[in-house]
């Protein structure tokens, strides 16, 4: 068990959770450790959880019919990742989630989220805000992939994930940006000259 939980701090900050609420929730909090390369979700399975990253790094991605990976999201510490459509609708996921490095997560199931809503009224309104922010992030991601050049996408990546650059191989960054590793090298070289 982790002594001082990033997740507990996250709940206290995001939802102004009180210690009495935490006492009711603590028994439902399940930590799980995943080794580098281990899957939390595979395409074709139904996603049962959202994953709060306590320590480590996850990636959320799909694989095309020709075997090419397309990374949609990285999830470093204090981020939540899930296939919410699969969770909500109970449909098989089209995505994979795996550990980029050894990672400890909090497994958030619907029971935990319902209990959180019962003990903390602020959760409902803040959860709506978090959902809207998630939708905004998806729209920005689509706009970036469809409307920005590689240099702009790379600069946005650095803003969104300032510490991920040193934690993942270049091909993963290129996959996230929708470019080849060679194109990423050219972008980085060009920016280093400026």
TrEMBL record:
<protein>
    <submittedName>
        <fullName>CRP-like cAMP-binding protein</fullName>
    </submittedName>
</protein>
<dbReference type="Pfam" id="PF00027">
    <property type="entry name" value="cNMP_binding"/>
</dbReference>
<dbReference type="InterPro" id="IPR018490">
    <property type="entry name" value="cNMP-bd_dom_sf"/>
</dbReference>
<feature type="domain" description="Cyclic nucleotide-binding">
    <location>
        <begin position="17"/>
        <end position="116"/>
    </location>
</feature>
<dbReference type="InterPro" id="IPR000595">
    <property type="entry name" value="cNMP-bd_dom"/>
</dbReference>
<dbReference type="InterPro" id="IPR014710">
    <property type="entry name" value="RmlC-like_jellyroll"/>
</dbReference>
